[in-house]
Design a protein that fits this description.
Chain lengths: 388, 388
């Protein structure tokens, strides 16, 4: 049997997939929703498939349903972002949005700016495009703009081309949980604009806030140079696969041509529109915030009780806590042993793009979203027993 | 305002989109379904969103729902194709499948084999990857394998690398309407296998057959070297955006990693599974065949009555007829005038990738799927009046 000649992109990948954790493991690894907050969409679907049948079962127009684009633009304007419906492109989830932005901006070998650690699912997407990762560290105000400035300066001095974009998760950063301060946001967008490097703002958890007030979105501070990627996965349900990109109109026009996929699914778009009508979305978000705040509090309490030696930043929102175990704890090994003991966690090593200095081995990300409160207690106990 | 530095791929595109035809034009341009055959999916959606809520609203497993992969494998086996569920990857429609196969196989400048004319929507997808098109003509048995053999021979002699894949629509070819003969299919897969060039078989209309029996699928003749792209768009409804790739398991493993999109929508997959249960799919296909046979017959009769000077192949299935106007008729100009007169058609020039010898100007594709029988009569009359 002969394999065909693969592209360079495909040749970089291994032909074997990592095994999925067993279905009965306590799921501290996953960004799934808690089953108790999954909304009832049956009535929205009925309307979508009767009243709107001729729309929802035909090909959609390529940029997305006009009402959906208008809804999202209004939703973002209510968050202080100056954006019109023509600046919105509907995509099949935020990861698809990231992929399209890479198509728009990246050639093989181009540099991009990421944080260390960073959202681990974005790593293979960027790597598929042959990106060179420039890893910048964070403190409790977010990504270090001073370190980024130095890095850009060094590249310029060395005659290297500037990075093609700056990727950031400014709210409840995944995995670190840090929310970028207003001052830091202002410095970041200013530096990016001076260097004419677009910023990709990925903020799926922005409305899943438990404490305090929101800082302005990066796109609110610079609507032209920041491209925002959004999703209904965390607001309504992951399975719907509806997300968006908000970017200047001429960027959206190019993205539409790169998308060439027959239009994103009009049925799921219409189901979301029906569900979000009136107070639907806000009521649902209120419930989601309430449930996940309880989950977070439960997990933080269990960690302090059972693993007092572990450092953690309490996140003001989102799905995750980022744990710093004492030096010498190898979380890759811990994750393997935890899985055997029935708990699935993600070791910190997965969150480093790996081209900078060696990734620290003593971090882990725990999701409090998917597991039940009882599973949270039980799972943390199991980990504590393993760490000893 | 400054544009960012685009990728080479994006720089090849213009930043303006073609205008959509007005909604009240008679839609001979479109591959949409006739509204009268859109199925009632409300009950299937109710079950999907109640009984299966925990599945349909969470992230799906990356290769697609196991039941859906099993259903498609069974569906293909009933068509004589030796395939297992592990060889099926669920994607967001056939165009997404083509895009993923390009990701797997193509680097910028790689050659691919297409027909002239070819399915026009595939042209920008392949072009986005910087493909060099090798255009091969067709006769009434399908693509010319002799011409392809000569072309491969010439490239080898010139020291040029072989093409990375052969793309073909063997059933009711879009746009030419030609169904490849069995003999030609056998020669094509044999030649491809000898040269170790994978074949991409794109056959969305295969079950939309009005006359005669089916020839074996290319993949039935060579399950290893043929990668089949399938879709529910023509079988159930375009808006669902569920398609698949059938390929060897190790190819599927690589495609899954390239896909990195959070899994295709589990809700639309489950709706389709519910709809297709028992006799559901076959009953629907019977209806679709009946309706589109009437549409085809109505259009062919109108064309013979009103435009006897136009040459056409009567297609045994699918959505389209391909018209050869007398030399001297410029169908780009005709399409513009027809649109002004309220009829939207696609000029033949759109179906040539344009890197071979100059595309003929006197062809046009007319879809009989979307318009009503009355609109078919009216639209053909308008065109006849314009041609004079």
């Amino acid at each position: 049997m002969t394999a065909p000649a693969f592209s360079r992109r495909a040749a970089r990948l291994s032909a074997t997939l990592p095994a999925a954790p067993p279905a009965d493991a306590i799921p501290f690894d996953s960004g799934h929703a808690f089953p108790g907050v999954l909304p009832d969409l049956a009535e929205a679907a009925r309307v979508a498939l009767t009243t709107y049948r001729a729309e929802t079962l035909q090909y959609a127009v390529r940029p997305g349903l006009p009402e959906m684009r208008e809804f999202i633009a209004g939703y973002m304007r209510s968050d202080g972002i100056d954006v019109s419906s023509e600046q919105i492109l509907i995509v099949n989830g935020a990861k698809h949005g990231l992929d399209l932005l890479c198509q728009l901006l990246l050639d093989e070998g181009d540099a991009i700016v990421v944080t260390a650690p960073m959202y681990f699912t974005a790593i293979p997407i960027f790597r598929n495009f042959g990106a060179e990762f420039i890893e910048i560290g964070q403190d409790d105000e977010g990504v270090s703009v001073d370190a980024l400035r130095d890095s850009l300066q060094r590249r310029a001095t060395a005659g290297e081309p500037p990075p093609k974009f700056i990727y950031n998760v400014p709210d409840f950063h995944n995995p670190s949980g840090v929310t970028m301060s207003r001052r830091r946001r202002e410095s970041l967008v200013r530096l990016a604009s001076e260097h004419r490097i677009p910023v990709i703002e990925d903020s799926p958890y922005r409305r899943i806030r438990f404490d305090g007030g929101a800082e302005p979105a990066l796109k609110a501070l610079d609507p032209h140079n920041v491209y925002a990627v959004g999703t209904f996965s965390k607001l309504v349900a992951p399975g719907l696969r509806v997300g968006w990109i908000a970017a200047p109109k001429e960027i959206v026009a190019r993205l539409i041509q790169l998308k060439s996929d027959g239009g994103s699914c009009p049925l799921t778009q219409r189901i979301i529109l029906e569900f979000c009508r009136g107070e639907g979305l806000q009521q649902h978000i209120d419930k989601v915030q309430r449930v996940y705040r309880e989950h977070r509090d439960r997990m933080v309490a269990a960690l302090r009780r059972e693993l007092p030696q572990v450092g953690l930043t309490i996140p003001d929102g989102g799905y995750y806590v980022w744990l710093r175990f004492p030096e010498g704890v190898d979380t890759d090994e811990l994750a393997r042993r935890a899985l055997t003991a029935g708990v699935s966690i993600l070791p910190g090593s997965k969150f480093f793009s790996g081209t900078g200095s060696g990734a620290p081995r003593n971090y882990a990300r725990l999701a409090f979203s998917h597991a039940s409160p009882e599973e949270i207690d039980r799972g943390v106990s199991v980990i504590a027993r393993l760490v000893g």
